[in-house]
Structures
1.
Amino acid sequence: MEQKTILIADDNALSRSILKRLFEKEYTVLQAADGKEAFDLFREQAGAVAAVLLDLLMPEYDGMYFLEQMRQLDPACTVPVICISGDERESSVIRSYHLGAENYITKPFNTDHVRRVVHSAVEQARSREPAHSEYDNMAMLGRLMAVLNRCYADKDAFHTALEIVGAYLGADRVSLYIKPFQSPAFQWRREGAADSYLPTYRWMLDNDWCAGMSDPEEWLLYVGPEYGNQKQFSAYYREYGVRTMQWVKLDGVREERAYLSIENAALSNQDIVLYAALQSCFSLAVKAVELGIVDQQTGMYNRRLYTEYMRELSHSRLTGLGVIVMNVNSMHQYISIYGQDAGDELLERTAEVIRRFAGDTCFRTGGDEFTVVLRNRTREATETLMARISAACREQNIGLSLGCEWRDTGINPEEQFKAADRNMRQAKQKHYDSLNVTNRTS
């Protein structure tokens, strides 16, 4: 049956009248005042409907009711539904996309735009090639940026952003890989899709996130013992239903890149402009977050992130935890003799040495104090790292006092920091005693 019918569902008679005049010369127009009436008409027409123009805010049976019933009737239905609503809430936009809406136009609407969107949606449905117009992309990106602008103060906003991208692209899963935040806030999956990224994140956490690896593809090669080589990589894809995967590289303020992973998107790779725009949007957001967690002088993570990180560790299942606290000796005296610029240069050199050996697990927790946190490492590994940092600093004539605390039972991050700090201060006292000078702590 040829699809020559447009179904308009809106409780506002004036809106229905305006939309009817737009399409009545080329389509038979059906009208409904709520979601239930609209669904009954849709079911009765049995294939004649070319598109549905759906208001969401209707009494009793709203637009979401129609979308839910339509999805239950035929999950593979290709009839485009264009939501035209005064509801601008992110949650409504996202949910409508989840339930299969093709597009979302907010009221008051431009009639020329509505006509273009409907004609484009009908043509794409006939050719079975899902696509979005440039205008649609811009509208989605606008919503995305509005959400990402909140990520500096609320990192959970990333989850909403991933949800917007996943729903718009028709993807199964969208994940953001950004150190050191491996958490549910950076993962989204469509309802019913397998949790393919969960073992990936679990492995990344257990192994300090891809130490020595440069690309996400390498991480997935080593997700766990059952997927430990190239041959078994395909098994990983099969188990989690991964047919296609796009990796979008993101730039931040640090050398290490972040990545956006999009699995099984309905939109093809040929929309290069859209993916480039996504790259720009998320790169700006990553930079905003990193500016709040990275110490600009040394490039280390700052005290703010240290506090968050230790709080998260206190709720994590760990096989071992090592904490190393370090403090530059006689920093105040050094500055008084050589000047503030020389003192800044000493701090930067010290941080460079620590980062070289400790990687991304180090923090600047005070003016001349640094802390390294080692999760799931042995006592020997913790003590060896401390000795290597100490030796490297001595080679560069950097006076550094160090103290550590390691536990595999009774793990308490904050208590271990305090114990490591006490051990560091004892080491500092021994240093001053060896010089036969008055006790100093800085």
2.
Amino acid sequence: MGTDMFEDKVIGQIRRYGMFEGAAHCVCGVSGGADSVSLLTVLARHRRELGLDIHVVHINHMIRGKDADDDQRYVESLCDSYGVECNLYRIDVCSIADSEGITVEEAGRNVRYDAFEKVRQRYASEGCVIAVAHNRNDVAETVMFNMARGTGMAGVKGIPARRGNIVRPLLGCDRSEIEAYLNRMGLKYCTDITNNEDEYTRNKIRHRILPVLCEVNPQAVEHICAMAQMAAEYEELASHMVRSFLMSQGIDADPGACVWHGKSEKRMRYVVDIDALRCQERLIQELTIRQLIGMAGGGLKDVGRSHVREVMKLYSSGTGAGIDLPGNGRVRVEYGKLVFDSYGGTENDKDSQLADVGQSQHIDMINGGVYETVSGTVEVKIYERPDALDLSKKECTKYVDYDKINKCLQLRTYRKGDYIVVNSDGSRKKINRLFTDSKIPVDKRGQIPLIISGDEVVWAVGIRIGENYKITDSTRKILELDFRRKES
């Protein structure tokens, strides 16, 4: 079988990036347009050389009526002529876009990649990748689109030749080369009339902006792609520096950690030292914050430079200051640290940083007992004062004058209005203020057990007891409180 210069170029791209290494199967997305038809043709003609079984996926988006059905029949016929498997899906993309509140373009992309992955999973055990037909013009359009949206370096780098299980063998070719190849091969292809409409943003770039740039310089697309490649290399260097800094702060710096999607029951928490962050180059500061926003908020979609700058304003803010993040996240200042939190997709968590971790437990004022909390157990003993009593300071054992307790005791966590008496003249301090003075992180305050009499705190476990409950020479009966923290 003779080869064509276009095929040689595509095979060279495949070899250069090792696109099919370890793969015995390839899922090929075929719309019926010039790009995907040329991709399928090259792969089908070289499948033995590449050692691949090809599985085509075609999506009928049910948007263009008879035209879409004609495209589907053409792809079926093409697959039959090449002797490759054809997986057809009819999906009402417009209905999905309406129900999910997203654009038709985004809905279409989502259903395509869902279908690709569904087929890929069938052959994953033998090695299988997904081949899509993005070309050099797509890279230029993506770069222009991302620049218009206000992207960072990651957006300017365009489209990678290989990412995860997705490969793009045509990325080194432009559209004119693809159409010329199909003409030489005598192959027809489908034309989606919506590609000629300027209703979609990418079409405006394709039909209005890039042609003008090519009038300025006929090699504009090639130069934009070269810039995108350089941007990718710079971005990789910067990403390495970000990962190094995050690791120095004890944070898992997995590059994929900031691109999870959907909701998770697990609450994530990332802490960085503000002074250490400010010592980095400004670009590394911004990229670090952006990644942390993505890790806490559920992904980088809709995260712009304005969000990063709002976080940087917190550098000079006091403890407790914070802002909500895109997705289900928040960042706040805690004693010279920036704390990025995720909330597992639950609005209740986001609305209250001081969640009550359990119902109030009434303490037996006659017999005492052992009481469980999420942080540990509190044992309560009641007895007459002995002749000798060790009142030396112990963090987790306290002695209280039983006769000074006017109301039944409860064991619970913080609630608004709780206070503690802090000196002999009866001065009060709100418990939330006590937590702040004791440098208790905001997300840990709901875990601290409190022994309560009404709204007055007798003992904030591990912090202090109320001044007016302390043992004196006149104390006759002792209330002993002993806290045993859970090992976890």
